[in-house]
Structures are given as structure tokens and as C-alpha cells.
Amino acid sequence: VFDVLIEIDVGMQRGGVRSVSEAVTLAQHIAGTGGIRFRGVQGYEGHCMLEPDRTVRVEKALRAMEHVMIVVDALAAAGFAADVVSGGGTGTYDITGAHPRVTELQAGSYVFMDAFHGTLVPGFDRSLTVLATCSGRHGQTVVFDAGRKSVGVDFAAPELVGHEHVAPGFFAEEHGLFDFSGAVPFDLGDRARIVPGYAPTTVNLYDVLHVVDGDVVVDVWPIVPRGPGRGLAAAE
Ligand SMILES: Cc1ncc(COP(=O)(O)O)c(C=O)c1O
After folding, report:
1. Torsion sign across C-alpha atoms 234, 39, 6, 25
2. Which residues contact 100 (CB under 8 A, 6 or more apart)?
3. Rounded to the nearest whole angstrom, what is the distance from the C-alpha of residue 105 to the centroid of ligand 1?
4. Which of 96, 101, 176, 205 could lock onto 144 through a cystine, CB 3.0 to 4.6 A?
């Protein structure tokens, strides 16, 4: 028997039930279906993650959880008590996570961070970088061999480690350009580490993560669930 959660739309207008009555109907349907058992709810307030103003984000996240609790109470009144009340992401981990009735946090990006999440929440280091090689130079512009096929650029532009002030230029499929204003510290063949604009759409581009301590690769972790058909694991 699989335990299942009912997804509640808390304002993101993506997946999930959009009313109390839909939630209760679904719980009743689950109760009448073999092989699955109602365990609780998940209400991911993803629409709050993009809110740069912390005060507004707090207000929006708390409003989203208020809605979750209305649904949870209605489900309980209908005989479906939720053991699990899940929500939250990196941008709201300390808001939703502090809610007394939330039992599980779904935050994931904090593990790696990126240029987008780095400006959203303090307290987590950026641990994910893409190793790139300088493949060309045109005056003040350095061309690296890592573009959108190597680095996620959703929501924020990538950054060069050690040169965070340097403006990223055009990110093409295979080329990532950075425009320097003063001295240009990269020449053909030089390596650089690029912090992705968005880690969730970067990890999915690779088969493995190279775990480094300084400049030494100390482990290689397969990224099993990547890609359509679930990547390497499915091919074996
Ligand atoms: C349903 C759900 N839960 C949790 C998360 C994790 O959020 P974050 O990457 O901000 O930690 C996401 C991210 O897209 C999500 O879609």
C-alpha cells in the first residue's frame, strides 16, 4: 500500500486541488481505491519564492499556509486526518518551516544555491559550479565553452567565481560570455568556475556530480533521476 498526499493549490495555479470540496472528494476517492492510503497534504507555495521583498514574501507564504490549514481542517472534519502537512522551499524554509502545523519542508535548492537563490535567502553557501574553459577573447569580452546547455539561466544570470561583479553577457547554447571592464584575467584555455543562475535546471543537464575538496575530486555521485526516461539507470 502506498501512502499518498493530496496536493493543494495554494496560489501557484499549477497542480493541486483548488477548493475544499475537491480535496474532500479526492480523499473519498483515495479511500475507495485499493493500493493507496491518504496520509496528508502538500501545498507548495512556489509563487512566493520569486518575491524579492522579504516582508511581502512572509505575508504571502503565511496566507498560503492559512489556506492549507483550512483544507486540512475540512479534511479532518470529513474523517481524513492529515499526518503529513508538507510545504516550503528554499525561499520560505524559515517562514513555512516555523508554522506550528507544518510537519515537512520540501526545500531543496539550499543544498547547492545559485545566483538566484543567493540573493533571496542568506545563510547558505553556493556549492554548485560548472567548470568552463575560455574558448575565445574579443577585447574585454571572454567567451567560455559553457552556455545554456551547461548552465541554468532561469530567474538570474550566472556568475563567475572570483569575479562576481563582472557582468554576464550573452548566454548562447554552447557559449557563455562575460564582459570585463578593467583587466581581463582569462586567456584561451584558462579554466573558470561558473555559478549557475538557477541550480535546479543545471543539475538535470549532467550524468554525475564531481564532489571537490579544493581542487581534488573526492567523489563522483551519479544523478540518477535526470532526463526523460530517468537517464543512465533506465539504460542499464
Ligand atoms: C513541489 C515543490 N516542492 C519543493 C520545491 C523546492 O523548492 P526550492 O528549490 O526552492 O528549494 C519545488 C521546486 O520547484 C517544488 O516544485
Report:
1. positive
2. none
3. 10
4. 176
CA atoms of 236 and 227, how far apart (whole Å):
14
Q: What is the mean pLDDT of residues 96-104?
A: 97
Residue by residue, DSSP assigns 122-164 as SS------EEEEEEEEETTEEEES--TTTS--SSS--EETT-T
Nearest CA to ligand 1 atom 5: 89
Q: Is the pLDDT of residue 105 over 90?
A: yes
Ligand 1 contact via 116 beta carbon (within 6 Å): no
Q: Is 61 in the pocket of ligand 1 (CB under 6 A)?
A: no
| Nine cell digits for residue 10 | 495554494
- Any atom of ligand 1 within 6 Å of the Cβ of 109: yes
Beta-carbon contacts of 105 under 8 Å, excluding residues fewer than 6 positions away, are 86, 87, 88, 93, 96, 97
Ligand 1 lined by 46 (C-beta under 6 Å): yes
What's the confidence (pLDDT) of residue 1? Answer: 95
Residue 167's pLDDT is what?
87
For atom 4 of ligand 1, the residue with the nearest CA is 106
- The amino acid present at 53, given as its one-letter code, is D
- Identify any residues that bridge with 205 across adjacent strands, giving them in sequence order: none
Q: What is the mean pLDDT of residues 191-216?
A: 95
| Helical spans, DSSP H, in the chain | 20-31, 46-49, 54-77, 93-96, 115-120, 200-203, 231-235
Q: Is the pLDDT assigned to residue 60 strictly greater than 60? A: yes
Q: Are 165 and 199 in contact (CB under 8 A)?
A: no
Compute the residue count for the chain.
236
